[in-house]
Design goal:
The chain has a single domain, classed as Spore Coat Polysaccharide Biosynthesis Protein SpsA, Chain A (Alpha-Beta Complex), CATH 3.90.550.40. 32% of the residues lie in helices and 30% in strands. The strands form three sheets. It has a seven-stranded mixed sheet, sandwiched between helices. Strands 7-6-9 form a three-stranded antiparallel sheet. A two-stranded antiparallel sheet has the order 4-12.
Length: 199
């Protein structure tokens, strides 16, 4: 299996995030698979993600694209868990679950949204939620996308990430839904989001 990780980065990465990334690389290689990490430094996030996905689509023999943020911490086996669950559910992409940065008081929202008919609102999940959950927008902090699906989107729309009031994630997920595909996160694949604490 060949994976390409796409990492927008601005100035610095905290040590726990760097450790997670290096551990992920080692784990993938130990499994006999391959992962290449591409970093876009010092861009606005929508331009960074657009340049990264264009670079990934020029690479040969890529099976999966992992959009990943520079302020996340995770166990490396969660990548494989996400891929396995995405394939089993016959999805084109699947996000891990993580909380909104600096959101440490209950009720705790996650970096996923639903459309109310007027605006996107962050989801506050039910206690004990399990399994794959459908929503309208997922963040790109730890998101696996099938390479062929990303290519299909790019060939049709060219611009996949565009900044809006709700961020670049909302525009991307709107394109995914326009193609008739589901936007989902896996409530059992939980990664940390760095703020003053690991959130």
């Amino acid at each position: 299996m060949n994976i390409v990780g796409l990492l927008p980065c601005y100035k610095i990465m905290d040590v726990p995030a760097v450790t997670s990334l290096l551990t992920l690389q080692a784990y993938v290689y130990q499994k006999g698979d391959n992962i290449n990490i591409i970093v876009a430094h010092n861009y606005l996030v929508d331009r960074a993600r657009q340049n990264l996905i264009e670079a990934a689509l020029k690479m040969d023999n890529v099976d999966y694209i992992l959009n990943i943020d520079s302020d996340h911490v995770y166990k490396p086996e969660l990548l494989y868990q996400l891929i396995e669950r995405m394939e089993k559910a016959e999805l084109q992409m699947l996000s891990a679950k993580y909380h909104v940065r600096n959101n440490i008081k209950p009720p705790r929202a996650i970096a996923m949204c639903n459309w109310t008919g007027e605006k996107y609102v962050k989801i506050v999940p039910e206690p004990g939620e399990k399994g794959i959950q459908e929503c309208d927008v997922v963040g790109n902090g730890f998101l696996v996308i099938k390479r062929d699906f990303a290519k299909r989107l790019y060939d049709k729309y060219k611009t996949l990430f565009k900044m809006s009031l709700y961020g670049e994630d909302a525009y991307f997920c709107e394109l995914v839904r326009k193609e008739g595909e589901k936007v989902c996160y896996d409530a059992d694949t939980v990664v940390g989001h760095l703020s003053l604490v690991v959130n």
